[in-house]
Specification:
By secondary structure, the protein is of the alpha/beta class. The chain has 4 domains: 11-207, P-loop containing nucleotide triphosphate hydrolases (Rossmann fold, 3-Layer(aba) Sandwich), CATH 3.40.50.300; 215-406, Rossmann fold; 413-516, Arc Repressor Mutant, subunit A, CATH 1.10.10.10; 536-614, HRDC domain (DNA polymerase, domain 1, Orthogonal Bundle), CATH 1.10.150.80. The chain is built from 29 helices and 17 strands. The protein has a 7-stranded parallel β-sheet, sandwiched between helices. A 6-stranded parallel β-sheet has the order 8-13-12-9-11-10, with helices on both faces. β10, α12 and β11 form a beta-alpha-beta unit. The chain is globular and about 90 Å long. The model is unreliable at 520-538 (pLDDT under 50). Zinc ion (ZN) binds next to α16 and α17. The site of zinc ion has 8 residues, from α16 and α17.
Length: 615
C-alpha cells in the first residue's frame, strides 16, 4: 500500500464534497445527511422537511452520485423550470421534459439520457407515466426516483392531485430503484397515505421539526374590510418582495389596484386570468427584487422565490396546514421574514358554511369543521403562535418562539362574562334577525328608527358600560367561541345563538368568557411596532456594507436580465449579504462564502471581486 493513499472515503464524505463544490454549502443541515445516506445505500425514504429546509439536495446529490439518471417528479412547470435553471447554473447535468419542451429539445434530452450524460431529469407525474416515456426510461439505468411535494398523493392532505395516484405503479416498473418522497407538509395521517399510495411501506421516515425560526408571526382581527390595513402593512415594508393572499379574485384585483395607486409594484394573480397573463405576472414577480404578488391560493405551490420577505393574509387561510404552507413561502432563504394574518368572525362563519354545503360523509365533515376551529383557535389565541403550529403537527416539548406578536406582547385577559350574558340575551330576544352592528346598537340603546317592539325588549339599552367597538369585539369573541353563530345571509350576515348547552352554561355563570384587554390606541400593537423596523436582512448588515450590497444586487440584476433568469438563480440575497459583509479579496476567499460553488465561482467570481473592489 502506498504511504500517501488517501483514507477510504465514505459515501457521506463524497456527498459532502459535492455539497461544497457544487452548491457551495459547508455542511449538511438537519436531516439531510440521514436521507442522503439512506438513498445512497439504495433504500427508499420519506422525508418531511419544512419549507426552506433544503429538501432538494436530498435527492439531487444522490442522483449525481449513483449511476444512471435520477428522475424527479414535480407538480408544477414553474417549479421544475426554476430548479433545473438553478442546477445548470451550478454546473449540474439537469434537464426537464414537460409540456413546454419543444420537439427538438426533447430529442436532445433523450440523446443525453441514452448517452448516460444526464444526472437529473424533471418530469410532471402525467409526463412520466406516459407509456412511451416509461417504455424508454425502463430501458435506462435509473439512479433514483424522487417524488417532490409528495403530500399531493393524499386526499387527506390539502393539495390533492389525482395524477399523483398513478405514481404507485413506479414500484413495479422500476424494481430495485430507490424512491424518495419529499414534502414540507404532512401530518401523521398524510404520511400514512403517502406510504400506502406510493408503496413506500418499507421506507425509513425522516421528519424534521416544523420550527421556522426566521418567521415572525402575527395576526390581527379585521376592522371592517381588510384592504386598508393591507395597504398600510405593505407600505410599511418598502423595497422588498411580498405575497398577499386574498380570499377572492375580486379581492386580488382590488388590492393590487389600490397598491399600484400608491406606487407599489403590485400584480394580481388568480385562476380566472388567461394563462399567458398569469405566466407573465409570475415571471415578473420571480424576476423582481421588489414586487408584490396579490393572489388567490391558485398561486403558490412550487413557487420557490427565496427572498419573499412577508406573506400577508388579507383573508385567513383554510386550515393550519394551509397557513403554514402559505406563510412558509416567506423567508425561504433563511433570512428573517414575516407572516401576518387578518381574520374575522365572518370568515369563520363562511368557512363553516362552505363545509356544510359539501357533499361529504359526516366523518369528513366533522374533521373539516374541527380543522377550521383549530385554525381560528390559533389565530385568535393568547399564546405563542409558532408553538401552537408545531404542537398541531405533533411536535413535543415545544418552547415559545419569543418573537411572535403574542410572545412580544402577551395579551392580558379580563372576565367579560356579565357583558357576554347581556349580548347573548339580546341575540336571543332579537331572534337572529339582525347583524353585528345592529346587535351592538341594541345593547347601547342607539338603534336608528327603532321599532316599538324592539325598544320594549328587556335587553334594549342594557349595555351602556361598553363602547360600540368593545361590543363588536365581544360579539366577535362569542362567535369565535361558538356561543353566537353567524349566518352569512349572502353578505348581510345575521347573528343568532350558537351551541345551546354552552350558552346555558354562560347564563348560569358556569362558563367564563374572557376577552383580551383592549390595547391602548386602535389597531394592532405588534404590527405598529414593527412598522418602524428596517428590513431585517439589512438590519443584520452594518450600514457601511449597504452600498456594496446594493451594488452587488445591481450587478446581479444585469447578469440575470442578460440570461433571462430570476436574480436568485445567480446568487441568493443571503450570499450577496455575506459577500458585502466579508469583502472577499481573492477567489479563494469568495469560495468560502455560503452559496458559492465551483461553477458559480468560475463564471462570476472575477466579476464579483471587481464589484467588491470598486465599492
Ligand atoms: P426546500 O426544502 O424548501 O425545497 P430548497 O431545497 O429549495 O428548500 O433549499 C432552500 C435553501 O437552502 C436554498 O437556498 C438552498 O441553497 C439552501 N440550502 C440547502 N441545503 C443547505 C445546506 N446544507 N447549507 C446551507 N444552505 C443550504
Ligand atoms: Zn411566539
Amino acid at each position: 500500500m502506498l504511504a500517501d493513499s488517501p483514507p477510504l472515503e465514505s459515501p457521506l464524505d463524497a456527498a459532502t464534497a459535492i455539497l461544497r463544490r457544487t452548491f457551495g454549502h459547508a455542511s449538511f443541515r438537519g436531516l439531510q445527511a440521514g436521507v442522503i445516506e439512506e438513498v445512497l445505500a439504495g433504500r427508499h425514504a420519506l422525508a418531511v422537511l419544512p419549507t426552506g429546509g433544503g429538501k432538494s439536495v436530498c435527492f439531487q446529490i444522490p442522483a449525481m452520485m449513483r449511476p444512471g439518471v435520477g428522475l424527479v417528479v414535480s407538480p408544477l412547470i414553474a417549479l421544475m423550470a426554476d430548479q433545473v435553471e438553478g442546477l445548470v447554473q451550478s454546473g449540474v447535468a439537469a434537464a426537464r421534459l414537460d409540456s413546454d419542451t419543444t420537439l427538438d429539445e426533447r430529442s436532445a434530452v433523450w440523446r443525453r439520457i441514452e448517452a448516460g450524460e444526464l444526472d437529473l431529469l424533471y418530469l410532471s407525474p402525467e409526463g412520466l407515466m406516459q407509456p412511451n416515456t416509461l417504455d424508454r426510461l425502463t430501458r435506462q439505468k435509473i439512479a433514483l426516483i424522487a417524488i417532490d411535494e409528495a403530500h399531493c398523493v393524499s386526499q387527506w392532505g390539502h393539495d390533492f392531485r389525482p395524477e399523483y395516484r398513478m405514481l404507485g405503479r413506479l414500484a413495479e416498473l422500476f424494481p430495485g430503484v430507490p424512491r424518495v418522497a419529499v414534502t414540507a407538509t404532512a401530518d401523521a395521517r398524510t404520511r400514512e397515505d403517502i406510504r400506502g399510495e406510493l408503496q413506500l411501506e418499507q421506507a425509513r421516515e425522516f421528519v424534521a421539526s416544523f420550527a421556522r425560526p426566521e418567521l415572525r408571526l402575527s395576526a390581527e382581527r379585521k376592522q371592517g374590510r381588510s384592504d386598508k390595513r393591507v395597504i398600510e402593512l405593505v407600505k410599511a415594508r418598502p423595497n422588498r418582495s411580498g405575497v398577499i393572499y386574498s380570499g377572492s379574485r375580486d379581492g386580488t384585483d382590488r388590492i393590487a389596484e389600490a397598491l399600484k395607486a400608491e406606487g407599489v409594484p403590485a400584480v394580481a394573480y388568480h385562476a380566472g386570468l388567461d394563462r399567458k397573463v398569469r405566466n407573465e405576472r409570475l415571471m415578473h414577480f420571480l424576476n423582481a427584487e421588489e414586487a408584490v404578488m396579490v393572489a388567490t391560493i391558485a398561486f403558490g405551490m412550487g413557487v420557490d422565490k427565496p427572498d419573499v420577505r412577508y406573506v400577508i393574509h388579507a383573508d385567513p387561510p383554510a386550515s393550519i396546514e394551509a397557513y403554514w404552507q402559505e406563510i412558509g413561502r416567506a423567508g425561504r432563504d433563511g433570512e428573517p421574514a414575516e407572516g401576518i394574518t387578518l381574520y374575522g368572525a365572518s370568515d369563520m362563519a363562511w368557512a363553516m358554511r362552505r363545509i356544510d354545503g359539501r357533499e361529504v360523509s359526516d366523518t369528513v365533515r366533522m374533521g373539516q369543521t374541527r380543522k377550521v376551529r383549530q385554525l381560528y383557535g390559533l389565530l385568535d389565541g393568547m399564546a405563542c403562535r409558532a408553538a401552537a403550529v408545531r404542537r398541531y403537527f405533533g411536535e413535543e416539548g415545544v418552547q415559545a418562539c419569543g418573537q411572535c406578536d403574542l410572545c412580544l406582547a402577551p395579551p392580558e385577559s379580563v372576565d367579560a362574562s356579565v357583558a357576554a350574558q347581556k349580548a347573548l340575551a339580546a341575540a336571543q330576544r332579537l331572534g337572529g334577525r339582525v347583524g353585528r352592528g345592529r346587535l351592538a346598537d341594541h345593547l347601547l340603546g342607539k338603534t336608528k328608527d327603532v321599532s316599538s317592539t324592539e325598544a320594549a325588549l328587556s335587553t334594549w339599552g342594557i349595555g351602556q358600560e361598553l363602547s360600540p367597538a368593545a361590543w363588536r369585539d365581544l360579539i366577535d369573541q362569542l362567535l369565535f367561541e361558538g356561543l353566537l353563530r353567524e349566518d352569512p345571509n349572502d353578505g348581510r350576515p345575521l347573528i343568532g345563538l350558537g351551541d345551546a348547552d354552552a350558552v346555558r352554561a354562560v347564563y348560569r355563570g358556569e362558563r367564563v368568557v374572557s376577552i383580551r384587554k383592549p390595547v391602548e390606541g386602535q389597531g394592532a400593537p405588534a404590527g405598529r411596532q414593527r412598522q418602524r423596523r428596517r428590513g431585517a436582512e439589512q438590519e443584520a448588515l452594518a450600514p457601511e456594507h449597504h452600498i456594496l450590497f446594493d451594488a452587488l444586487r445591481a450587478w446581479r440584476r444585469n447578469i440575470a436580465a442578460e440570461q433571462g433568469v430570476p436574480p436568485y438563480v445567480i446568487f441568493h440575497d443571503r450570499t450577496l449579504g455575506e459577500i458585502a459583509a466579508f469583502c472577499p479579496a481573492t477567489l479563494n476567499d469568495l469560495a468560502g462564502i455560503g452559496g458559492v460553488g465551483q461553477a458559480k465561482l468560475d463564471h462570476y467570481g472575477l466579476m464579483v471581486l471587481k464589484v467588491v473592489r470598486e465599492n
